Amino acid sequence: MLAPALASRFAKIALDNVVREYPCKPEHVLDGPGDVSFPRVLHPAFYGSYDWHSCVHMHWLLARLLRRFPSLPEAAEIAATFDRHLSRDAIAGEVAYLARPGTRSFERTYGWAWLLKLAEELGCGTAPGCARWRDHVAPLAEAFVARYLDYLPKAALPLRTGMHPNSAFGLAFALDYARASDARDLAVLCEAKARAWFGNDRDYPASWEPSGADFLSPALVEADLMRRVLPADEFAAWLTRFLPWFLSGEPASLFTPATPTDRGDPQIVHLDGLSFSRAWCFDGIAEALPAGDGRIAVAEEAAAVHRLAGLEGLQSGDYMGAHWLASFAVVALDGA
Question: pLDDT value at position 316?
Answer without folding.
Answer: 87
